User: Fold this.
Amino acid sequence: MKIGIDKIGFYAPHLYLDMNELAEERGVEPEKFTIGIGQEKMAVPPITQDTVTLAANAAAQILDETDKQDIDMVIFGTESGIDHSKSAAVNVHQLLGLQPHARAIELKQACYGATAGIQMARGHIALNPNRKVLVLGSDIARYGLRTPGESTQGAGAVALLISADPSIMAIEQESTYYTDDIMDFWRPVYSDIAFVDGKYSNEQYIAFFQKVWNAYKEQTNRGLEDFAAICFHLPYTKMGLKALRTVLDEVEENTQTHLKEQYRLSTQYNRNIGNIYTGSLYLSLLSLLENSNELTAGDKIGMYSYGSGAVGEFFSGVLQEGFEKQLHQTKHNAMFEKRQKISVSEYEKIFEQQIPTDGSVTEWSTKEDPAEICLTGIQNHQRIYQVK
Assistant:
């Protein structure tokens, strides 16, 4: 039985910051951001968007009423959780109007959370082939103003509907993974910004890739030549390329050229949104599917997932007949075009806005936020959401 991605959608805030302007304001060469790390724009979430609303808006774009009745599990991968107890999946379940006889949980392992959710969903569908699982990867990447990680911030969510006989990609059984207790990136419960040892994290990202890739080759007897493309978790768009380059000498030059071009296409969306942690790999996959003209049914796509701390996994999927009909490139292009550019000072003001932690009653207007689902305020220590 084939199990995999039946539908995929994403959502990003309507505000963005031009990385050239951020570089100039911070006194660095713009090429350090646009070429050095490969970022052009950074999605900036207004106070009316959090990880719950981003995920709900991403899912609302792809689910129909039949899906809402068939879904009996919601898995929310995030490292930007809003509650130590209640899962964000429960909030999204209610906002989307899903049928009540469902499980709803939140998973955490840095940027690996959504991948863990997909693998868990596959097991559930294997036992319940008539059901569907909604997997969400939603995050707001925050490192602080004027910090080394500031240029790799971002915000957004990817929603994936996992089912039997999927319309887009069947996920293959073969998978290799690796865990090691390291401190390359972390965010203590008392902090709303992340801490990162940038050089060490880059080194570990590549090291974990090589470990799981070599294990995958040994397990499957496959090589780079068997893949139409390889998608990577992208904390910034140059990171995956650094890892890919370490193994390109395994194939001939024409295959190297092909894989590098497909990689470039897989970074188009991430380049204009920034890091979205758990959703990053799947935004890369979506970017590839919607921007490459060379993919056909039966193509094998490699997937490298990495979550600091750290867990890495390499797995693969096979594109299904008619997969391109399930994509929404026109809608996504329109979303990009309608975004509003803000100045560095406006970005800083938004960044410094805080959700109260003392129980204060707070209300925010959502008139300027075009999203269907928004955060409108805080009351009795509870977040209040609106479906327009």
The longest helix spans residues 198-220. Residues 171-323 form a domain with the Peroxisomal Thiolase; Chain A, domain 1 fold (CATH 3.40.47.10).
